[in-house]
Design goal:
The chain is built from nine helices and seven strands. The protein is of the alpha/beta class and about 250 residues long. It has a seven-stranded parallel β-sheet with strand order 3-2-1-4-5-6-7, with helices on both faces. Helix 2 links the parallel strand 2 and strand 3. Helix 1 runs parallel beside helix 2, helix 3 packs parallel to helix 4 and helix 4 packs parallel to helix 6. The model has no long low-confidence stretch (mean pLDDT about 95).
């Protein structure tokens, strides 16, 4: 029987690359999306065309009731979860802190922090040996912004990812004896659509000359790190923040 993985924000970018690579590694994959059902369907079609097993699961991770329904669907359609990738996240247009309103901050933390925490809670309830589970792995997608701070652009986003780093370290220690490993990947400048959603579609290429490796990373390069942390090759790795940032 295939191990089962849930990838939030799995319809595009790093999430889609992770879903595809996880399927190639032998996982049955639940591809979560919030609104873009067509993109999620395409990821699932690609996985199935390659002989893999995949389903789509809709949920806005900022809404607890939708998260509960998503996990219930994974339970019913695939079975007991053994890997969670907390990838769903949002960014906003570049702004200084003194220009950010409460609605922006609420959206940022509801999705990037609380959404990841609620998904992790539901995963622990299924994976933990304390709850009769077989163990498993949680990989949180953070950002190097957590240590750089995002000054003058995205201090709210950076702060949300700093929260994910701390959450990763704490949860890893909490459930280490219950068969669950918890790690985070911190991407740097990656050439995905998230820059366009922040109003800077050319950001990755524009910043490339400033990066030690002189190029942005790809979603597939980040996915390689995520899937490694999910699998048996990382069996003694937990509480780790792994930068995939080209030396940034």
């Amino acid at each position: 029987m295939k191990p089962i993985a849930l990838v939030t924000g799995g319809s595009r970018g790093i999430g889609a690359a992770t879903a595809l690579l996880a399927a190639q590694a032998g996982y049955a994959v639940a591809v979560n999306y919030s609104t873009n059902s067509l993109a999620a369907d395409e990821v699932v079609r690609t996985i199935r065309a390659q002989g893999g097993t995949a389903i789509t699961v809709q949920a806005d991770v900022a809404q607890e009731d939708q998260v509960l329904a998503m996990f219930a669907k994974v339970d019913a359609k695939l079975g007991r979860l053994c890997a969670l990738v907390n990838n769903a996240g949002v960014v906003d247009v570049a702004a200084r802190m003194d220009a950010m309103d409460m609605a922006r901050l609420q959206r940022m933390f509801d999705t990037n922090v609380l959404g990841s925490m609620v998904c992790a809670r539901e995963a622990v309830r299924r994976m933990s040996t304390r709850h009769g589970g077989p163990g498993g792995a949680i990989v949180n997608v953070s950002s190097v912004a957590a240590r750089l701070g995002g000054a003058g652009q995205y201090v709210d986003y950076a702060a949300s990812k700093g929260s994910i780093d701390t959450f990763t370290l704490g949860l890893a220690k909490e459930v280490a004896a219950e068969g669950i490993r918890v790690n985070a990947v911190r991407p740097g400048i990656i050439d995905t659509e998230i820059h366009a959603s922040g109003g800077q579609p050319d950001r990755a290429q524009r910043l490339a000359p400033q990066l030690p490796m002189q190029r942005p990373g790809t979603a597939e390069e980040v996915a390689q790190a995520i899937v490694w942390l999910m699998g048996a090759g990382a069996s003694y790795t937990t509480g780790t923040l792994l930068d995939v940032a080209g030396g940034r």
